[in-house]
Amino acid sequence: MKKHNPRHGHLAEVWGDTVDLRHLAWSIGIGLVVSLSCFLLASHLLVDRVESAALARAYAMLAGLVGCVLSGVICGALFPPKREVVEDGAADPSWRQEVLNGLAAQSGGLGSVAELPPSVVSEMKALHIYELFANAPPARAEAPGIPQAVPPATEER
Predict the structure, then answer these.
(1) Where are the domains of the chain?
(2) d(Cα 133, Cα 137) in Å, to the nearest integer?
(3) Any stretches that span the bilayer, and where are they (predicted)?
(4) Given strand 11-14, what is the order of strands in its sheet?
C-alpha cells in the first residue's frame, strides 16, 4: 500500500487503485457484517431443512459468498471512486511519433487506414488518432528479417 501526497492524507494506493482509507475501513466492516450475517442466517435456516449437516454448511457458505457480492454492491453505491481521470488534448507529438515508429517496426507494419472497417475508422476519428495514422509514411516494402516472396518468373515468347 503506497501513500499519496500529504495534502490527500486519507488517500492511499491499493492494488494500483486510489482509495480513501476511511472508506476502505468502512467497506471491510460492511463486507464482514453482511457476508457473515448471510452465512449465519443461511446456516441457521438450513440446518433443519437439509438432510445432511455438510450439505447445509455448503449452502450456507454459498449464501456467504452471495453476501460478499451484496456487500460489494452496497459499498460501490455508498463510496464513489476516488481516482481523477484527466484528459489533456495537448499530447506531446514526439511521443506519438515514437509509438508510430514502434508499431511500424513490428512485423506487418502499420498497414493502411483504407483497409480498416468503417466501425474502426469512426472509432479512430472519435479518439482523434485517425489523422495520425492516415498521415503516417507508408509501410516499407520489406520488414526486417522477413524474406519477401519472389513472384515466379514469366517467360516471354
Answers:
(1) 2-78, 93-134
(2) 9
(3) 24-47, 59-79
(4) 2-3, 11-14, 17-20
Q: pTM to 2 decimals?
A: 0.51
Q: Which long-range contacts (CB under 8 A, 24 or more apart) does 100-103 make?
A: 100/132, 100/133, 100/136
Q: How far apart are CA 118 and CA 17, in angstroms?
A: 35
> Which run of H or of E encompasses 19?
strand 17-20
CA distance 46 to 60: 8
Cβ neighbours for 7, distance < 8 A, ≥ 6 positions apart: none
pLDDT digits (tens, 9 = 90+) for 54-93: 999 999 999 999 999 999 999 999 998 877 777 666 666 6
CA atoms in the 13 A half-sphere facing the CB of 8: 14
